[in-house]
Amino acid sequence: MQALTHTMRNLLRRLAVRVYARRVEGRLDTEQGPKHIGVILDGNRRWAKAAGSTTAEGHEAGAAKIQELLGWCAETEVEVVTLWMLSTDNLSRAPRELTPLLAIVESAVRDLAGDGRWRVNHVGALDGLPERTRTVLRDAEELTRSHTGILVNVAIGYGGRQEITDAVRSLLAKCAAEGQTLEQVAESLGVEDISEHLYTRGQPDPDLVIRTSGEQRLSGFMLWQSAHSEYYFCEVFWPAFRKVDFLRALRDYAVRHRRYGI
Asked: Does residue 195 register a pLDDT over 90?
């Protein structure tokens, strides 16, 4: 009897959440919503620990959540989504943890490419990744190049400081190839010059950055591009992130008055 009562409570709770989510969604103005959303997919290991699962199972659950998120983004007219899936710091983990994590990341990228709706784009430093991972990323980009759906930036082997360093290095190499001296570069250097050499060059900066798991920091995510972004910190771990949590983030974004740093 107690088990039946517990089941009924769970069903009623899920029903109430769905009704609430529809109400929130019905009041959203997608015309005023974010067009580029960055997401820090945080909390896989803590979710696994709380659920009595293995770390690998936590990462697998987190990878499975990505397709749900993109479906919600498509429904709300989001055009670009940047997913921080693996940081440069993650690459220093012990092989026994890194190897299965990379396999899960690679599988998630293949799933994105095989879905048929999304255009996959890698952002990060390729030279720090194993050749197998680099091949998966190149294949995904090539396979989805002509797709017209959401542009999905998969941030793998990504670090914000590394991105800015790579951008400056690329800019200096370009200027040197054009015969410019360092003095000439320093005199003419502007913000847009560096922006044109970022991993996300040619893309709009993120309007909204979401981080799950309750942590309230960027940890180096899109340091340059997020200067004027709005931030939303969600308490739930990434594998437990629900549509209602996503809609709450959009609702929170909608009521803010964006000052763009002013």
From this structure: yes
pLDDT over 70, % of the chain? 86
Alpha-carbon span 18 to 131, nearest angstrom: 43
Which amino acid is residue 133, in one-letter code? T
pLDDT bucket at 2, cuts 50 / 70 / 90? low
Distance (Å, whole) CA 151 – CA 117: 9
Active site residue 89: no
Q: Cβ-count burial of 178 within 10 angstroms (0-12 exposed, 13-18 middle, 19+ buried)?
A: exposed
Long-range contacts of 134-140 (CB under 8 A, 24+ apart): 136/106, 136/109, 136/110, 137/109, 139/113, 140/109, 140/110, 140/112, 140/113
Phi, psi of 152 (to 5 degrees): -110, 105
Which strands form 230-233's sheet, in the order they lie side by side? 119-123, 151-158, 80-87, 36-40, 208-211, 230-233
One of 44, 90, 121, 153 is an active-site residue; which one? 90
Report the alpha-carbon distance of residue 14 to residue 48 in Å, rounded: 21
In whole angstroms, what is the distance from residue 155 CA to residue 48 CA? Answer: 22
Return the structure tokens found at 56: 């690998």
pLDDT at position 260, please? 62
Residue 189 has pLDDT above 70, yes or no: yes
Domains of the chain: 2-254 (3.40.1180.10)
The residue annotated as part of the active site, out of 42, 44, 153, 207, is 42
pLDDT higher than threshold 80 for residue 19: no
Told to judge if 42 belongs to the known catalytic residues of this protein, a careful annotator would answer yes
pLDDT of res. 17: 46
